[in-house]
Amino acid sequence: MSRSLMVTASASPFRPAAVVPTAIIDLSGVGKTYRTPAGDFAALTDINLTLPGGQFLAVVGKSGSGKSTLVNLLTGIDSVTTGTVRFGDTQLNGKSEEQLTAWRGRHVGVVFQFFQLLPTLTVIENVMLPMDFCRVGKPAERRPKALALLDQLGIAEQADKLPVDLSGGQQQRAAIARALANDPQLLVADEPTGNLDSRTTAEVMDLFKSLTRNGRTVVMVTHERDLSAYFTRTIELEDGRIVADNRVGAQS
Q: CATH 3.40.630.30: does it fit domain 53-65+96-246?
């Protein structure tokens, strides 16, 4: 049986080997415009946002408010039309797709609502994939590291199974392990609890909160207002603009 992921202030089941170096994420005057057959569409306008390391940020807003666009700019999946995006000393503007892919693999982990585990790979092979892609560590070290992550997430016994053989909660834990494989400074989660029951949701949220204590920045897109106590900060988007920026919950 999987161990619980419940986190207390004095101890966490997730203990990375080292504290993750923090990086300040800064968006200055950011705008994103898409060209459509009907004309230009401004998905984001004049976004100014600074995220120190260790924050747990919620991004909320109605469908079409710009949440996904903002996340894509933070992760370097999309590029700005105006303004700048900086991650520590690195400016993402002007980098090639190849450079952004390599940067993202080293510094960003992404967790999706629908897990996105490759169905033909075992759980541990899914977790090893970012390490293989970015050539992190020696090949012989990757399986032990992946197994350690799965153990810390309470599903080591599922390592050699295919994703289809796991429950939804177990698949989400495997997806989180994969997102953490390269010790990223930024973890982005897009509606990660949308398909989980209330107990597993609480466990996953406690895990995310614990990660910020190790210096990571966690950005989560959510529609679930009842999770607000977990976040250290919440921004609300409306028509591509930040209309509210609130410090909420308790700092870790």
A: no
